[in-house]
Design a protein that fits this description.
Number of domains: 2
Radius of gyration: 30 Å
Protein name: KCTD2 protein
Pfam families: BTB_2
CATH class of the largest domain: Alpha Beta
Largest sheet: 4 strands, antiparallel
Structural class: alpha+beta
Distance between the termini: 70 Å
GO molecular function, one term: cullin family protein binding
Oligomer: single chain
Strand order of the largest sheet: 5-6-4-9
Domain BTB: 4-107
């Protein structure tokens, strides 16, 4: 009976895995190499009995991990194109599709360009501050609160005034024209500036 464990020498680096893992993709190079009776791929073995595979071991890790748990995990320092090249070499079709999707998604993200923000400075008195912040909508986020002192009030009390800086991402564009959503928050004074 063949051993449950298989030793691979990929470009001088040793990997150990089970036959079950290597045969997750029945049409793959790895399954044909060491899991089928009378392997159709003639491959040399080194002095330790490990199958010799002349490929880059750096990119073999994501291939083996995908066969182990079915998830695509690529370290930041590895190029996705390198993992794609190895997935194609080892003939792991489901992994080829996943890597191509990830590359396409990354290209789409970078082609959209940098995210733009709209900043607004809202002026309000202390008594209006809570209501103003709580009624912000359409993706507005609180950025900063600046006290600008007090204003004269007809009563005996001074009212503290504030500038409230809010921002919102502008990521919904059509044909290069950025559309700003309707503003629902009502405030006394509004100054707008776009970054």
């Amino acid at each position: 009976a063949a051993s449950k464990w298989v030793r691979l020498n990929v470009g001088g680096t040793y990997f150990v895995s089970t036959r079950q893992t290597l045969c997750r993709e029945p049409k793959s190079f790895l399954c044909r190499l060491c899991c089928q009776d009378g392997p159709e791929l003639g491959s040399d073995k080194d002095e330790t009995g490990a199958y010799l595979i002349d490929r880059d071991p750096t990119y073999f890790g994501p291939i083996l991990n995908y066969l182990r748990h079915g998830k695509l995990i690529i370290n930041k320092e590895l190029a996705e194109e390198g993992v794609l090249e190895e997935a194609e070499f080892y003939n792991i079709a489901s992994l080829v599709r996943l890597v191509k999707e990830r590359i396409r998604d990354n290209e789409n993200r970078t082609s959209q360009g940098p995210v733009k923000h709209v900043y607004r400075v809202l002026q309000c008195q202390e008594e209006e501050l809570t209501q103003m912040v709580s009624t912000m909508s359409d993706g507005w986020k609180f950025e900063q609160l600046i006290s600008i002192g007090s204003s004269y009030n007809y009563g005996n009390e001074d009212q503290a005034e504030f500038l409230c800086v809010v921002s919102r991402e502008l990521n919904n564009s059509t044909n290069g024209i950025v559309k700003e959503p309707s503003e629902k928050a009502k405030v006394r004074h509004l100054l707008s500036c776009t970054n």
